[in-house]
Every structure is written in C-alpha cells, then in structure tokens.
Amino acid sequence: MFGAFGERVANPLLRLYSRDGQHEIAKPNQESTEIVGVPFGEYVLSGGSGTALGKREIIVNKKDVWVRLGLGLFVGNQNGSGGAITISGVIKPVPAKPDDWWVRVEGVFLHVSGESPVSSRGEFSTGLFPMGTYLIQVFEGPKLQDARTVEVDNQNTNRRLIIEVP
Question: By CB count within 10 A, which of 3, 147, 148, 157 is most buried?
C-alpha cells in the first residue's frame, strides 16, 4: 500500500469485502499485506493507516492478482474520499477545433480521476482531488497529445498548468 506521494505505508490495515461492502471476506495475517485463498469474483479492497483510508473495487479472475492501493492525504477538516484541490490550465496554442480536445486527470497512486472538455479559449478545469501525484493527459479526440505528472498539495489548492502542444 502506498501513500499519496508514492511512499510505502508501514503496517497498513487491509480488509477485503463483498462487492456490496456488507460482508468481510478476508484479511491478511499480521506480518504481511498478502491475502490468500480468495475465490474468483468482484470485491472491495479497503486499506488504512492512521487517518488515511483507501478503497478500490477489484476483480479476482486468476490465481495471483496484484493490486496497488493508494491512500489519500487528508488535512484540516477534510473527511472521506473527496478533496479540495482543482487541477486546471490552458492549452497553447489554443486548438483550432477545441470541441475535439479534452483532458483526463488520474491519480498515480490514488484511485481517483476526472475529465474536462477544453473551452474555446483552450482552458480546462477538473477537481475536488485529495493531495497526491496525478497524471495529466491531453487528447485531441482519441489521440494523446501530451502527458505529464504533477504533485499537488494543500499549499496550492488550484494547480494551474500551461500545456504547449505542437
């Protein structure tokens, strides 16, 4: 299990639940984060350490399934899986057909994502993310035009990017 900025979490608490979250299926032994003997199916993996919590839907469809679970870093009175950070920016030069352009933001270690269309001025904005590292992908239709990672924290709750594309 990994923290919001990719650091390995010491002594995480893991639990595997039924897909509806009503029944605990398994938990690892005290000396490992490995859960063994899980039948094929759909589950919710929950993990925590201190006040951070991460959840992820998983599918077990083969003997060995490796899952990376990220924990958000929550500060102040933020509780739950949301956040207060917005990732926005402008694409330069402004695309000739901005209706074909869009941006996807995905957590690198956190299981969160968002998408935004690009406005006629080349601007985009998506948000309510917790602090962490994010992959920013800029698309023209289905074609990837730019990709980069950014780290966001509570010192800058609106991460503004300038993305120059050919």
Answer: 3
Across the chain, where does the E strand assignment appear? Answer: 13-18, 24-26, 41-49, 52-60, 85-92, 101-107, 113-117, 123-129, 132-140, 143-152, 158-164
**pTM value?**
0.58
**Phi, psi for residue 98 in degrees, rounded to 5:** -65, -20
Pair of tokens at residue 54: 């991460």
- pLDDT for the residue 79: 39
Chain-centroid distance, C-alpha 7:
15
pLDDT digits (tens, 9 = 90+) for 112-151: 888 899 999 999 998 878 888 899 999 999 999 999 999 8
Give the CATH superfamily of 85-164: Carboxypeptidase-like, regulatory domain (2.60.40.1120)
Domain layout of the chain by residue ranges? 1-71, 85-164
**The Cα angle at residue 137 between residues 90 and 142, in degrees rounded to 5:** 105
> Could you tell me the fold of the domain covering 1-71?
Immunoglobulin-like (2.60.40)
Residue 131 identity: M
